[in-house]
């Protein structure tokens, strides 16, 4: 079985908008209530691990008794709030994420619902959702008939647009491909990556221009008096630019990952821990903005669909300091040196040299030397 998600714009009626707002609110309410109660339970039993293990955590059913208005919305949305909180705690305990946070009214609003006994249906420019009935959808691409809808996530962006992400499941057994064409990618802060053939994945110019425009708009916002009309107007503008940039980046990442997945049988990358990396190097937001995580996710499933491979190599492998020609390690190479020079006479662009090493390491893992 394989999964694929499809994202479309939704056009709810005013009445549906009201129910959606209510659903977002209820989901947030239940999530925060459950979190609050969990925190209390942890406080109470923090010195008694056994008692903590025995203790039952709150469920949405309990709140429905205390707050009957929760029954007016899709109950699956509440069940998913519980699952999401559970996931947040699992991530926290495994060290992958910080302690779960309360959901704020200002954050992106969304909820997820599941397919149960045909409660969701797509037909003629509309989608049927639990409690909402038929809601207008702009379906710009078809979902193949052998794809079964598993769940839907409905989101309202900060600029007031509605989207639905439809997760589907389908029977898929790709035939593993013989590995002939292999490419190595070296992560690059400015251009996403440099490949082992020396090519850079440059972000399009309009994207970089939009980033500059956003920076300007943010400066204007910081000068406005907080809460004033002009501040609200500017804030909306900033939110719109953010959305536009996020969409442009996503389009670009889809494009480059598609090209790579079609062209190569295997792609080799370094297994970077972006969270650790951004903290260690004080790059802050920019590493996340660079979209490496999203890119590798796209690449992974686009390759897998075709029976191809994404190879991740150890992040401690000294890819930039090793000569890709003779294997000598140049320990004194500093970050500012853009050219790699080796005693053997080999000279190459620093990132290209790293990408060749990454490719070589991947070939080793594949058993092709
Ligand atoms: Zn050398």
Automatic annotation (TrEMBL):
Residues of the Transposase putative helix-turn-helix domain: 1-45
Keyword entries, A-Z: DNA recombination, DNA-binding, Metal-binding, Transposition, Zinc
Pfam families membership: Cas12f1-like_TNB, HTH_OrfB_IS605, OrfB_IS605
InterPro entries to which the protein is assigned, alphabetical: Cas12f1-like_TNB (IPR010095), RNA-guided_DNA_endo/Transpos (IPR051399), Transposase (IPR001959), Transposase_put_HTH (IPR021027)
Domain of life: Bacteria
One BP annotation, GO: DNA recombination
Residue ranges annotated for the Probable transposase IS891/IS1136/IS1341 domain, each copy included: 165-279
Domain Cas12f1-like TNB per the UniProt entry, residue ranges: 292-358
Signal peptide residues on this chain, from the entry's feature table: none
GO molecular function terms noted in the UniProt entry: DNA binding; metal ion binding
Family: In the C-terminal section; belongs to the transposase 35 family. In the N-terminal section; belongs to the transposase 2 family.
Protein's recorded name: Transposase
Species this chain originates from: Caldalkalibacillus thermarum (strain TA2.A1)
């Amino acid at each position: 079985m394989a999964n694929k998600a499809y994202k479309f714009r939704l056009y709810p009626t005013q009445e549906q908008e009201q129910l959606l707002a209510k659903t977002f609110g209820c989901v947030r309410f239940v999530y925060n209530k459950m979190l609050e109660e969990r925190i209390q339970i942890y406080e109470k039993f923090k010195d008694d691990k056994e008692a903590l293990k025995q203790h039952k955590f709150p469920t949405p059913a309990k709140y429905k008794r205390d707050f009957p208005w929760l029954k007016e919305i899709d109950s699956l949305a509440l069940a998913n709030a519980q699952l999401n909180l559970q996931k947040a705690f699992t991530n926290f305990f495994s060290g992958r994420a910080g302690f779960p946070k309360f959901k704020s009214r200002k954050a992106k609003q969304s909820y997820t619902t599941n397919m149960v006994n045909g409660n969701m249906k797509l037909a003629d420019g509309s989608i049927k959702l639990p409690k909402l009935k038929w809601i207008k959808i702009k379906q710009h691409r078809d979902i193949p008939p052998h794809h079964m809808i598993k769940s839907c996530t409905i989101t309202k962006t900060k600029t007031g647009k509605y989207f639905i992400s439809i997760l589907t499941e389908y029977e898929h057994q790709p035939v593993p491909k013989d590995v002939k064409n292999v490419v190595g990618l070296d992560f690059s802060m400015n251009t996403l990556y440099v490949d082992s053939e020396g090519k850079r994945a440059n972000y399009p110019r309009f994207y970089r221009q939009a980033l500059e425009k956003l920076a300007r708009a943010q400066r204007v916002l910081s000068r406005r008096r907080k809460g004033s009309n002009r501040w609200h107007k500017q804030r909306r503008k900033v939110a719109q630019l953010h959305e536009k940039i996020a969409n442009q980046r996503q389009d670009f990442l889809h494009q480059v990952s598609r090209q790579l997945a079609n062209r190569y049988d295997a792609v080799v990358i370094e297994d970077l821990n972006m969270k650790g990396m951004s903290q260690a190097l004080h790059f802050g937001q920019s590493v996340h903005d660079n979209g490496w995580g999203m890119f590798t996710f796209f690449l992974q499933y686009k390759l897998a669909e075709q029976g191809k491979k994404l190879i991740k190599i150890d992040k401690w492998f000294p890819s930039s300091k090793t000569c890709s020609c003779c294997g000598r390690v140049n320990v004194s190479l500093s970050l500012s040196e853009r050219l790699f020079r080796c005693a053997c006479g080999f000279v190459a662009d620093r990132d290209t040299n790293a990408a060749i090493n990454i490719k070589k390491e991947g070939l080793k893992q594949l058993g092709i030397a």
